[in-house]
Amino acid sequence: MGGRTGRVLLRIATAAVLLFMYIPLALVVIYAFSENGTSAWPPSSLSTKWIEQAIANTGLRDAFLTSIVIALGATVVALVLGSLAALAVGRHQFFGREAVSFVVVFPIALPGVVTGMALSTTFATTGLPLGILAIVIGHATFCIVLVYNNVIARLRRTAYTQEEASADLGADSWQTFRFITLPNIRSAMLAGALLAFALSFDEVIVTIFVAGGVKTLPIWIFQSFRLANQVALVNVAGLVAILLSVVPVYIATRLTRDTGAAGRT
Amino acid sequence: MTDPADPPRPQGQTAAVQPSTRRRLAAALQRHPSVVLGLLLAAPVAWLVIAYLGSLVVLFLNAGWSRDPFTGLVKRDFTFNNFVELATNPVYRTIALRTLGMAVAVTVTCALLAFPLAYYMARVASPRVRGLLVIAVLMPLWSSYLIKVFSWLQILSGDGVLNWALSPLGLQGPGHGEVGLWLVLTYLWLPYMILPVYAGLERIPNSLIEASADLGGGGWMTFRRVILPLVFPALVAGSIFTFSLTLGDYIAPQYITTTQFIGNVILSNFGVPNLPLAATLSLVPLVIVTSYLLIARRLGAFEAL
Questions:
Q1: How many angstroms separate the CA atoms of A48 and A35, rounded?
Q2: pTM of the predicted model, to two decimals?
Q3: Using the beta-carbon criterion (under 8 Å), do B286 and A114 form an inter-chain contact?
Q4: Which of A115, A122, A123 is nearest to A140 (CA)?
Q5: For B130-136, what is the mean pLDDT?
Q6: pLDDT tens digits for range B182-195
Q7: Would strands B66-67 and B74-75 be described as parallel, antiparallel, or unpaired?
Q8: Which of A87, A118, B99, B121 is within CB 3.0–4.6 Å of B59 for a Cys-Cys bond?
Q9: How many CB pairs under 8 A join A and B?
Q10: Whole-number pLDDT of residue A163
């Protein structure tokens, strides 16, 4: 798009879109420190009293810890399964290879309400209990793709000749994996795991269907949405939720700077 | 030169105390790559097939079952009654079309907003600024979904910041309603559109744009005849997300509007009210998105992901 005017217009549009993306997030931070604790704008004065109240709120604290446990569980499962699938697809030729990569993406490509309904009807039909384990299973299922994508992007970039050289020098398959492949993909695995953690920690659409009575942090926030006296606490919880997903993602981006695989597919 | 049974050890490896079993196993695996492949694939494929595809099958079965109005129990005889109800009841058709219309509107708006930013990132910004902008797009994408909805709930409320900003101009925000929801969903899914479009634009070689200019193509001509066709698969890739996420959402619609969208109807029938009907209803977004994925694949969107 040539021309000086075009370039100026492009800059203005870019700045406007960035503002559109950041104003709502900035507001959450401001509201978390707003004295009066309602959505009225502008806030009369700022204070840290809601932060203190949020820390003292046991319901909020329990929900936070539950979310951490679930996110860790889902991350471990996704890390193992995603890495295995990526090694299979990235380093082997076989019939159905395309199908495997499709099936890995499917759970996150389908609308959340479908995944949630599918899992919860299955639990209801088979008589398995809902709750923490059900949430971990659900989250792990759509987090696999995050690890898989990061690891397979790394495998595509690292030459297979390294592994062949290792074998030529007499290393057996385990040694090649342990000393060549693993160091190559380790940071991609970590990046995938961080993204899986962030996604699980934040997920609510599927979680509501399989939670039973369990309260994760997003479910606590969801249930407090309409309670007028909880508005300020929700903003504080939101601040925590933003930090706990943004920080892992930021680290993951640094780890995979070359491939930039931090998108959700 | 070296005996294959005794390779030079990479540093840091302690001498194996009992090398025989492990080495024999490793050697056996080396001779049978298909066994290695099987070991790698078994767990993830089993998980995805049982936990996910299996669940979808159960969902489909449930869609054909029915709820006994007297006992409240689910009767496990497959009939097409729910499907007939879905096809003939005009309420469901209206809700499905409304949801679909929202998905289209949100997708188009996201594409329009994403393009200038993605273009600036890919073709104007310096590498350093580009890196910062990628992070600037990723941060809102990963920030808590619920909190973004909550923030908009506050922004759009009567005494919220939007009306406060617009009142000096004598204007009023859309408030809580379908227009507000369109704004919120556009906000929520915008980063999912920016990232693939940015990647698509970045892949266009400069030489093509120069060639177009050399052949006399002006800015608009180059955009329409060179850039747009090349970035189209990336736009389709982004639209998979904006489409699927809009169809699958029930929280933003529930809080921003009082109108029913397909997700809300599914949730309100979920559990005790009528699980089989909820299952039938959730086949609607399933079918729409699966067809969309198949079309997107033909349009080359999967390579652009």
A1: 8
A2: 0.85
A3: yes
A4: A115
A5: 89
A6: 999 999 999 999 99
A7: antiparallel
A8: A118
A9: 297
A10: 84
